[in-house]
Amino acid sequence: MKILAVCDLCIQNALFECIRHGDYSFPDHEWGKISDKAKDLVACLLVTNPCSRFSASDVLDHPWIKNSDLECDQVLLFTTKR
């Protein structure tokens, strides 16, 4: 069991490193049901340069937030492992 936990930690650390360097993607098997506007917002929040990254005000002005009553991504946000 501990080996699995270490592997999960390694995967998580690798993911954080990729995000930190701006090397990420939105794979269809996980993000296929997410709208392009939602993915755009996430991408704007993951910009590595803090001066270019979205501010809270930018987020509130983003079309996915402003038009959230018009479209809603209905996907399972998390699952539990058994």
Protein architecture, described:
There is one protein chain. The protein is an all-alpha fold and 82 residues long. It has a single domain, classed as Transferase(Phosphotransferase), domain 1 (Orthogonal Bundle), CATH 1.10.510. 52% of the residues lie in helices and 0% in strands. The protein has 5 helices and no strands. The two termini are 13 Å apart.
Helix percent band: 40-55%
**What fold name stands as the CATH topology?**
Transferase(Phosphotransferase), domain 1
Rg (C-alpha, Å):
16 Å
Number of helices: 5
Order of helices and strands: HHHHH
Q: Tally the structural domains.
A: 1
CATH architecture: Orthogonal Bundle
Q: Which sheet architecture does the biggest sheet show?
A: none
- Given helix and strand content, the structural type is mainly alpha
CATH homologous superfamily heading: Transferase(Phosphotransferase) domain 1
Number of DSSP-assigned strands: 0
Q: What number is the mean pLDDT? A: 83
DSSP strand (E) fraction? under 5%
Low-pLDDT stretches: none
